[in-house]
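Page header: ASSEMBLY MODEL / three components / 1086 residues total.
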Amino acid sequence: MSAFETFLEGAVRTATPLGFAALGETVAERSGVINIGLEGAIIAGAFGGFVAAGSGSVWLGFAGSMVAGILVAALFAIFAIRIRADQIITGTAISLLCLGLTATLYQQMYGATGAALSIPTMSAMELPLLSSIPLFGRALFAQPAIAYLLYIMIPLIWWWMYRTYEGLALRATGEDPRAAVAAGIPARKFQTMSVLFGGAMGGIAGGVLVIAQAGSFAEGISAGRGFIAIAIVVLGRWHPLGVAAAALIFGAASALQYFFQALGWPVPYQLFLALPYVLTLFGLAGIAGRAVAPAGLGR
Amino acid sequence: MTVSNATDNALELREITKRFGSVIALDDVSLAVRHGRITALLGENGAGKTTLMRIAFGMIQPDAGWISVNGVRKKLASPSDAIAAGIGMVHQQFSLIPAMTVAENVALGGHGKYSAGQAVATLSEIAERTGLKLDPLARVADLGSADRQKLEILRTLAHDAKLIILDEPTAALTPKDVAELFRQLKSFVSGGGAVVLITHKLADAQEHADDVTVLRRGRVVLSARMSETTRDSLVEAMLGVSPDIESAESNRDFISAGPVASLEAVVLPDDPHRRPVDLQINAGEILGVAALDGAARSLLRALANRSPLLAGRIHLPSRIGFVPENRKDEALIADFSLSENLALANAGSLHGTVDWNTVREDTRRIISDFDVRTSSSEALPAQLSGGNQQRFVLGRELSGNPSMLVLENPTQGLDVNAAIFVHERLRQARNEGTAVVFYSSDLEELADLSDRVAVVTRTAVTLVSPDRDKIGQALLGTLEKDGS
Amino acid sequence: MGAELALLTDSLVRATPLIIAGLAVALAFRGGVFNIGAEGQLLAGAIAATAVSLAGAPVFGRAVVLIALIAASLAGALWAGIAAELRRRFHVLEIISTIMLNFIAIYFVSFLVRGPLQEPTHIYPQTESLDTVARLPVLLPETRLHFGFVLAVGLAVFLSWIFRRTAMGFRIRATGASPLVARMAGRIDVSRTSFLVFLFSGALAGIAGGIEVTGLTFALYENLSPGYGYTAIAVALIAGLNPLGVIASGIFFGVLETGAIALQREFGVPSSIASVIEAVFILAALTLTAVRGRQLLGRASAS
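Prediction written out in full:
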């Protein structure tokens, strides 16, 4: 494989968890809720997936990830939607709580030394024919099976959002909850459902990190991806396809380091580690256009 | 209770009471709407008409009272309940999603797979039935007011409404559009439907409505067939007579001492007509501002130096006191004690250390001078009644010896004693040379307190003498000139 | 006696950065700024203090400590300033931008200690050790308790005075309690006030980092801060955003974390239990906030 193909494969690999989290957050934000607790959902999903995968099945592991993510989102929903607490503060506290809780539980259950336990990992599953396409084939179609779930979900969510009444109602809720209610839409129900969906996707993202990539859990393995995902939603203009593209861009930025290494250029690797976070700052500043946010976001 | 018969009212609201905090928005209000008739709900800004209809549409829950639709008692916990009960509401445009198309807005509330084709089909079917037509693919943001309203009506029809409530429907329509609107409404009621028309436009109501109910300050003041009323009786009911507020002094012999603020060709942000305003505020004078629909809000705020201008020049003195309408959110910090709230005055330009002892003393002085009933200078605003809060705010704003004092509805929600007290203080300030500018929706108050009155209408700002009839005519007379 | 004394002094040593960073967070939250970036601002301060100390010790002698701490505060303010400007100009949520900057700061430290600032033998990922003349004096011989603790308490008293007695402090409180009323009734320049609050908050966090370097670690290395910036949030919230209360809650968390490490050593209880307790406290404070609206963050009692 050429350096370019390695680079692309790395880009897709890095983009996968980001894509899951960002896609979920897109749905949530389209309903008008900004979930800063996404980071918590991811780390909870990572831990939950790790524990569940200990049973021997990777798919059970992912199920565990999803459940963990939904639980975290439910906690967020209770505070932010039901009690109408400030969404920002709530999300931050939940993220911090999950980071601390997962670290403690991990140490408690698996020992402070963090000895690498063996959980089944999901290896790459090559799709026949598709993976033979020159240049992109291996990058896109020689990924762990969970990535293909993401490939399916992106157009599915896109279709749901723009071609069904429910999707229409969701978007209306995010634009103007008052108007949506006046039009007979159960806005709070939509917001709750979309937040839970976002949590589920965040959980799966965490599961990807552990089951399909690292192979084990580590404290703080989410490394701020929840916040990066929020920036990806902005960059992708709250549209499933745009968000997918933006996730890929972030993945590419991270994968650049392999590219540079392969080329032998002596750029400090910390630069690449920091790049996604720098990009997030730019993304949030609305370099790609902030005006298209759902008008009712965060209220 | 649930027996249904042919003479049942399309909608009946009984003994509805609603409070927002300490403000009573609706007090034991009852309303009956009959099939095949247009009922007008008249009243001034803040009278409670919109609140009442929002209750009818399930957007707000009443604190007391009940609702029945076609003789059946119903609980309307949300707009979807109301829509299911056959009630539709045409709002003042906040129930449309501007970023979406006509078809999408009509479709809101459906289920399953959405096809633009189906929405288009529904729209053409209604168009055939009623003649109301709109381009399904047009974006609402691109539509003008008349079309947006058509869309709202279309939507209620698409949901099979039998009763349509319209909130100030003719506010921004041309005479031609208004005529068309009422044509549609008449045809709707002749088919057995019922219509509630919320409006402050007397002429519209008189011409088109069959029944009328007038609300004033949350109470029903008049309820009759339109044919049994006269224009004067309606005006009297709408604008009302307050309890006797004794004028301690005559207003006519003030000595004005020159201008203290002026507006030259000023265009204000919330003015859709962008007309330039010229106005001069004099020292030692009380200028009342009369307007409908709170149209004077940005004018007052511009005078208070709290609102930007779109164009023109404004000259203001350095010290301006401001008493906003919304005490809770704009004048007082709930978590701060009275002393801390006093310290807010001029907080923006203070330097160095704060001597809290002095502040506390000043607070106590204001409490005694302005007769604020409170336990101490360290009490929280929430522990004071509305009247006492207003006394305190007034005291605070006057404590800086401002050259000009601007107030929004200074006695709204106040008991009679507090209102009298406020008036006396304002006169006192005026006698000491302060320029006082206040907005009020109460004609009686405007006539009683002002030295001059500026009437703000859609076409002009007119200065009149503080005579109740003259003010009323200027407000309503202009109504007749445009669009009805 | 020796072991108990060590535990006590170690708790105070641990409490020192927690108190100062806690003050940074309390100041920010009081002013309505959600500064979650104390961690990164602390590291920025640590970097500046280290660099200045290493370069300046031979030149300035004992005075270098003061210069280093000033540099630390400037660096912290600068780091916070990035987020402050993003907030002011682009309306970027400071919660996210400060967290991003935290990560960037961590990687920057890693780059420095493995690169330009690495100690001369190039073996370990850390800087050279600080000259003794550049170190804060020790308060109790045979312990690690250093002058930084006194500075921490002093800063808390100073901040408390600012809030209670100065016009600036009052403006900050008003801005945090209700920007609308502050603007309408107080004619306060809310935008400028929050910007300055943000910078000063960063400066305080920077000082925390500078004191940690000049008082305890005497060098810069990766993982210098075991999450002080995040714990500081809990410290500030538990103290009700009251500067004097921060002293108490900072010591409380210092005891908690020192004890947790000891517990882990002795009984194998995971030390991260402390972070769970901290997070639970935050959530509890959150519940209070939720129930009473945003009032917790605008705690107005003049103390």
